[in-house]
Amino acid sequence: MSTADYDNGRLNLPFVGICTFGKNPYVSDWDSIDSDVAVLGAPYDFGTQWRAGARFGPRSIREASTLFSFGHGGAYDHEDDVTYLSSDKVSIADIGDADIIHTDTVQSHANIEYGVRKILAAGALPVVLGGDHSINIPCVAAFDDQEPIHIVQIDAHLDFVDERHGVTQGHGNPMFRAAEKSHVTGLSQIGIRNVSSTSKSGYEAARAAGSDIISVRQFRKLGVQGVLDRIPAGVRYYVTIDIDGFDPSIAPGTGTPSHGGFLYYEGLELLAGLAQRGTVVGVDLVEVAPDYDRTSTTAILAAQLLLNFIGRIMHQRSA
To answer: Is the distance from CB of 49 to CB of 197 less than 8 angstroms?
Structure first.
């Protein structure tokens, strides 16, 4: 809803109208993207190794995002004394979903990559809603004609597997695939913990490829600033957020929950610090599976994180 709608007296409550991300305009023509931020759904979950269901993640995140669409001309943060996402300063478009071809990973990933390339060609910030974490593979591939990027991953799992029984494009492979790219300069993998899907040799391979791996307990000992100090400053960040990086007490709706995860403000303060430390050029948030999210807590967390992160990214750009 625009500020004009609000001023003219239309209430337009969150449960009214068409459900787009934050109730922002829907743009179906990907050659006509004209916004600061473009949100793309990637409802693909064929890469999961245990519980599927993240194909419904984009819908659930969009639905949850309407909670934050009361149309007050932005979101005033009294702690920062900043109005984020002011409608006269930041434009967001929802461009719908990439087409997913059931059982066809190659074409489904290609369709996601195509959408991200269209967003980049329009000069907008791509924000991609997964889907399982394999959707990061085509997202990162789309940056191959851009300036180099540093990957910052929030996750419970390392996702640094080359190949397992012939699988190279599943949700355990994205960080290995990213490290292979010449336009990826390094990885900061934050929140990695507990019983992992990766063996010791995987950790050794990740570190050899230039990854800095930080657990939640290490994060809390270092503090937010201590962690930020370990991430290269003044570079271009691609941020990939697996919702299972957060504790299942606030994010139960995911396929592979792992106890001991982040709480909301730990994640937000890290993301806010990244927006100040360098230039965020791409974001994906993955593994929200609403079938395990009985109270919509996980989807609300995802929407709230993304809207707050987008607000801080765009505030830093204007500053």
So the answer is: yes
What pTM was computed for the model?
A: 0.95
Q: DSSP string covering 144-201, please?
A: TTSS-EEEEEE-SS----S-BTTB-SSTTSHHHHHHH-TTEEEEEEES--SS-SS-HH
Look at the chain and report how many structural domains it folds into.
1
Determine the Cα–Cα distance for residues 168 and 179; give it in Å rounded to an integer: 13
Least confident of 68-77, 79-88, 208-217: 68-77
Q: How many CA atoms lie within 13 A of 166 on its CB side?
A: 0
CA separation for the pair 164, 201 (Å, rounded): 14
- Cβ neighbors of 189 (< 8 A, separation 6 or more) are 153, 155, 158, 160, 175, 206, 211, 212, 213, 214
CATH of the domain at 312: 3.40.800.10
| Per-residue pLDDT tens digits for 174-185 | 999 999 999 999
Could you list the residue range(s) of the whole structural domain that residue 307 is in?
A: 3-318
